[in-house]
């Protein structure tokens, strides 16, 4: 009896354990590399490294698959994963979702890069589909900002400018001015790979798989699903329409 009371008293001090995602909301989980400015200092192309971004996609795919997400988006050192209102893993416990997602991201990226990497994790809640569209458009705007600023900064650094000088030359300049600055250094920003400027999307697609049925002794086809990695996402309003299809698909099936 005494032991039961003790057990209950200790458990009651797990102060956040009862927190759950509220019912009926769209959830986006966002993981972000911890101190990746430092992590990427050596061994990676600047400002954007294809191998690094490939490892981010691999990490995003692991999150989408392990956590049964609907859509994932990655840019820079962050990944967002969308869950529909009916998502029910871990009994919707917040601590589980946040800690396990950070663990999946850290383990997958560490294995891929062969260097210890940590990710933090946070939860965003949207009460209606238009919030979700706004969320992903917000992160895509961040991708554009990071890519353009990164290209300006590292182009100037490679041209011999000191960190402060480089920053001062493009800080608070307009989008057009930044693109013009890159032009002066023979970089055509608009022809850089689309994924560098808009981020990468990951989502489920179905495909037909033909397999041999040894009992019937003939080929048999079945529908399977796999993760598609989309490196040519649309932009702005069109990206909003693109996101909307994941939301509509949920409404149509619920
Ligand atoms: N070299 C390189 N660095 C990258 C790439 N993607 C992200 N980063 C770095 O990751 C940082 C991410 O920003 P942020 O999360 O604000 O910084 P953190 O707090 O140091 O992780 C950027 O400042 C870049 O230094 C890439 O493709 N190549
Ligand atoms: Mg970071």
Distance between the termini: 47 Å
- Helix/strand-derived category reads alpha+beta
Small-molecule components bound: guanosine-5'-diphosphate, magnesium ion
* Unreliable segments of 5+ consecutive residues: none
Computed over alpha carbons, the radius of gyration is 22 Å
Main pleated-sheet profile: 6 strands, antiparallel
Q: What do these coordinates show?
A:
With 254 residues, the protein is of the alpha+beta class. It has a single domain (2-198), classed as tRNA(His) guanylyltransferase (Thg1) (Alpha-Beta Plaits), CATH 3.30.70. It is built from nine helices and six strands, in the order αβααββαβααααββα. The chain has a six-stranded antiparallel β-sheet, with helices on both faces. α5 (129-158) runs antiparallel to α9. The longest helix is centred in the middle third of the chain and has 30 residues, at 129-158. It is globular and about 70 Å long. The chain starts with a helix and ends with a helix. The model has no long low-confidence stretch (mean pLDDT 96). The site of magnesium ion has 4 residues, from β1. Residues 32-33, 35-37, 40, 44-46, 48-49, 52-53, 76-77 line the site of guanosine-5'-diphosphate.
């Amino acid at each position: 009896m005494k032991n039961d009371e003790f057990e209950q008293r200790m458990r009651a001090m797990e102060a956040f354990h009862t927190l759950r995602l509220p019912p009926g909301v769209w959830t986006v989980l966002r993981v972000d590399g911890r101190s990746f400015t430092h992590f990427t200092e050596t061994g990676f192309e600047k400002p954007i490294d294809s191998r690094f971004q490939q490892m981010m996609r691999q990490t995003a795919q692991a999150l989408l698959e392990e956590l049964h997400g609907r859509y994932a988006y990655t840019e820079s050192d962050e990944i967002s994963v969308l869950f529909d209102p009916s998502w029910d893993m871990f009994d919707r416990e917040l601590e589980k979702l946040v800690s396990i997602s950070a663990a999946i991201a850290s383990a997958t990226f560490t294995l891929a890069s062969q260097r210890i990497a940590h990710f933090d994790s946070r939860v965003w809640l949207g009460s209606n589909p238009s919030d979700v569209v706004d969320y992903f458009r917000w992160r895509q705007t961040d991708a554009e900002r990071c890519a353009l600023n990164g290209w300006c900064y590292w182009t100037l650094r490679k041209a011999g400018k000191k960190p402060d000088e480089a920053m001062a030359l493009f800080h608070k300049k307009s989008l057009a001015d930044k693109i013009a600055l890159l032009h002066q250094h023979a970089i055509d920003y608009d022809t850089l790979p689309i994924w560098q400027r808009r981020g990468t999307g990951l989502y489920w697609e179905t495909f037909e798989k033909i397999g041999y049925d040894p009992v019937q002794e003939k080929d048999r086809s079945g529908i399977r699903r796999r993760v598609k990695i989309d490196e040519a996402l649309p932009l702005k309003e069109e990206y909003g329409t693109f996101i909307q299809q994941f939301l509509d698909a949920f409404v149509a099936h619920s």
